[in-house]
Design goal:
The protein is mostly helical. It has one domain (2-49). Helix content is 82%, strand content 0%. Helix 2 packs across helix 3 (22-49). It is elongated and about 40 Å long. It starts with a helix and ends with a helix.
């Protein structure tokens, strides 16, 4: 997360830095971000309904 959003490195550079494929970087970012985005989206929908 730090490399992507603070250091602003593209996934390809992160993959070289970590010694994994770009696809693995993409999957790891998605696995961390998706639940948080869903939770935020659910909270926004709930708050809008009240």
């Amino acid at each position: 997360m730090h490399l992507r959003f603070v250091e602003e490195l593209p996934q390809q550079q992160i993959s070289v830095h970590l010694g994994i494929s770009q696809m693995q970087v993409s999957r790891r970012l998605s696995s961390v971000l998706a639940p948080r985005l869903r939770a935020t989206s659910t909270n926004d929908t709930t708050e809008a309904a009240t």
